UniProtKB/TrEMBL annotation:
Superkingdom of origin: Eukaryota
Organism: Zalophus californianus
Listed Low complexity bias regions: 268-285
Disordered, as annotated region: 250-300, 315-336
Protein name as annotated: LIM domain-binding protein 2 isoform X8
Lineage, opening ranks: Eukaryota, Metazoa, Chordata, Craniata, Vertebrata
InterPro entries xrefs: LIM-bd/SEUSS
Length: 336
């Protein structure tokens, strides 16, 4: 009995792989970008209670670029919040999620859209859910929904360059069995009715994000301390001195090549009227072009008066300016 194959829409990534294979181009990564999130979920599930900072650094190195940034946007009772942390603070962010009582963390992407650029791949998922399973203070499942925008590098590693999660809403789910167990205890029911997170984030994570506002600008100090083994006070002095130098230093001006002026020989056979007309034109042009040549030197040096007699016509020795100055003793002195 013949069976008909139901056509299904190809994703943008599948179409790109198809065209790449047809054109003979090399496909850097043979999976969809969403599969990287699936791999990250599996890596988070393999975490143990003994996972130290080295494990979290290896996790961030596997899935995030060296210059990656992670941004969280949400709205609390006191207004909207937006936190952006760099690559060095990303491992600690994920570890604080589990320190707040979370035993499991994974991300679900639905109906995501992919776009491809020269060196990056952007995944825009308007229906993303961050699911966390809490073991304390009580057994609760929290679903944090929002929009997740990811930018991957288009290479063999396909690591995340930018992570932007905008939280819209969240839900805290308590099993019915727990409610049935404590149905006769009003105090426990009152405790179960209270939220254990704020916009799906634990207090450990929120406090760490607030701390990152201070830690992020201090990355330069920490890097200098780690590189040169200086004391914190010396690191601060060095950074402030370098910033002060950059502020005070004048902007670099482009070097100009000196222009050489050629002298024009006067024709001895020219008429007297032409030479006098040329001299008048030159003197007029010198007044228009160089107004600073007629400035009095006495305005700059006290006790020294000057009688300007300066023009752009070269003199006998090839000088451009010839003036007579009066020295403080009252004697006249010619200046070339």
């Amino acid at each position: 009995m013949p069976t008909s194959l139901t056509p299904f829409p190809l994703s943008t990534w599948a179409l790109y792989q198809l065209t790449s294979s047809q054109e003979g181009r090399h496909t850097p990564y043979m999976v969809q970008p969403e599969y990287r999130i699936y791999e990250m979920n599996k890596r988070l599930q393999s975490r143990t209670e003994d996972s130290d900072n080295l494990w979290w650094d290896a996790f961030a190195t596997e899935f995030f670029e060296d210059d990656a940034t992670l941004t969280l946007s949400f709205c609390l009772e006191d207004g909207p919040k937006r936190y952006t942390i760099g690559r060095t603070l990303i491992p600690r962010y994920f570890s604080t999620v589990f320190e707040g009582g979370v035993t499991d963390l994974y991300y679900i992407l639905k109906h995501s859209k992919e776009s491809y650029h020269n060196s990056s791949i952007t995944v825009d998922c308007d229906q993303c859910a961050m699911v966390t399973q809490h073991g304390k203070p009580m057994f609760t499942k929290v679903c944090t929904e929002g929009r997740l925008i990811l930018e991957f590098t288009f290479d063999d590693l396909m690591r995340i360059k930018t992570w932007h999660f905008t939280i819209r809403q969240y839900r805290e789910l308590v099993p019915r069995s727990i409610l049935a167990m404590h149905a006769q205890d009003p105090q426990v029911l009152d405790q179960l009715s209270k939220n254990i997170t704020r916009m799906g984030l634990t207090n450990f994570t929120l406090n760490y994000l607030r701390l990152c506002v201070i830690l992020e600008p201090m990355q330069e100090l920490m890097s200098r301390h780690k590189t040169y083994n200086l004391s914190p006070r010396d690191c601060l002095k060095t950074c402030l001195f370098q910033k002060w130098q950059r502020m005070v230093a004048p902007p670099a001006e482009p070097t100009r090549q000196p222009t050489t002026k050629r002298r024009k020989r006067k024709n001895s056979t020219s008429s007297t009227s032409n030479s006098s007309a040329g001299n008048n034109a030159n003197s007029t042009g010198s007044k228009k072009k160089t107004p600073a040549a007629n400035l009095s030197l006495s305005s700059q040096v006290p006790g020294l008066g000057a009688i300007p007699n300066c023009s752009l016509n070269p003199g006998r020795d090839g000088d451009l300016c010839h003036s007579t100055a009066v020295t403080p003793s009252g004697q006249f002195k010619e200046k070339h």
